[in-house]
Amino acid sequence: MIPGILIVTFITTLVIYFVLDYVLKNVMLYLVSGGILGSLYELSNHKIGITLSFIIWALILVSFIALLFQVRNEIARYFLVVLIGALLYIIDALVAGIPYDALGTGNVLLISNIVIGLLILSKSLILSWIIYTGIIKIRSRSL
């Protein structure tokens, strides 16, 4: 049986990602990917490729997730959850490279909305599981 706190966490992250992605038209994707990819591009003196940038982005994400399980400070854990939630936009950045019109259908808007919905669901599932295992379970073990 799925714990109730996991369901509440999933619904909360789903609403947050829905507002950021659908209502605000991917504003976080532009901010996060522009900040990360632009910074990597500038730090490498314009010599880094997109593939290496995504690998570095993924390594940063994995590092923060690993750090979440090691940190004991509650405030630092919540800060890391916010950073991880932002870094999960790597999923959107990778999917953004897929041309929807290459499928040969005239329903680009419909396909785009379906993809946005699937991205919101996937990020919400991942983040809620990270929150559940990284904060809630750790807190219950320490009691």
Task: For the structure shown, list the relevant keywords.
mainly alpha; flat; 143 residues
Q: What topology does this entry show?
A:
Elements: H1 4-23, H2 27-43, H3 50-70, H4 74-87, H5 90-95, H6 108-142
Helix pairs in contact: 1-6, 2-3, 3-4, 4-6
Q: What is the string of helix and strand elements?
A: HHHHHH
What characteristic shape results from the CA principal axes? flat
- By helix and strand content, what is the structural category? mainly alpha
Helix run count = 6
Enumerate the spans where pLDDT stays under 50 for 5 or more consecutive residues: none
Cα-atom radius of gyration: 17 Å
- Give the strand content: under 5%
Q: Main β-sheet: number of strands, strand sense, barrel status?
A: none
Tell how many strands the DSSP assignment holds.
Answer: 0
**Range of helix content:** over 70%
Cα separation of the termini: 22 Å
The overall pLDDT average reads: 88
Provide a compact summary of the structure:
With about 140 residues, the protein is mainly alpha-helical. It is built from six helices and no strands. The chain starts with a helix and ends with a helix.
